[in-house]
Amino acid sequence: MYIAIRKYYIIPGAVDEWLRRVHWGFVPIISQAPDFVAYYALKVRDDEAVTVSIFDTQAGAEESVRQAAEWVATNIASLNQGLPEIIVGHVRAHSGPLSNAARSEDAVARWV
User: Fold this and answer.
1) How far does the chain reach from its first CA to its final CA, in angstroms?
2) How do beta strands 85-90 and 2-9 pair?
3) CA distances from 66 to 14, 39, 63, 72 (A)
4) I need a surface site. Which of 42, 56, 74, 76 has the fewest CB within 10 A?
5) Backbone angles phi, psi at 9, to 5 degrees
């Protein structure tokens, strides 16, 4: 299982509009991506939002970064302040339901 985390800096006071656009515009796109597991968008403050994309494969997580960058540039760039911080990584420890790919890995991979 792989996760892509993106932290966005948004014009103060515009985060609710930013999240509304993400909900109606980007969520339907990313939900159809190959190896998709889940997507979350969080309001951190009035000028910050964080998104979390979960995929069964590294390729899916990395593709989500490309899709997000393209969609943001076209749809909400005017609400952003600068570029997002982006992290993509392989989940090595977790609790809760497993994705399809994580179910097939050795139990040792849950804590490496």
Assistant:
1) 13
2) antiparallel
3) 23, 15, 5, 10
4) 74
5) -105, 125
Tokens (6 digits) for 5: 């985390």
7: which strand partners? 50, 85
Residue 18 CA to residue 16 CA, distance in Å, equals 5
* Average pLDDT of span 1-28: 95
Q: Kindly report the three-state secondary structure assignment for every residue of 10-74.
A: ECCCCHHHHHHHHHHHHHHHHCCCCCEEEEEEEEEECCEEEEEEEECCHHHHHHHHHHHHHHHHH
**3-class SS of residue 84:** coil
Q: How many alpha carbons fall within 13 Å on the CB side of residue 63?
A: 14
Alpha carbon dihedral 70, 61, 33, 71, in 10-degree steps, equals -10
Mind listing the pLDDT tens digit for each residue in 45-97?
999 999 999 999 999 999 999 999 999 999 999 999 999 999 999 998 888 76
Question: Residues of the chain with pLDDT > 90: what percent?
Answer: 78
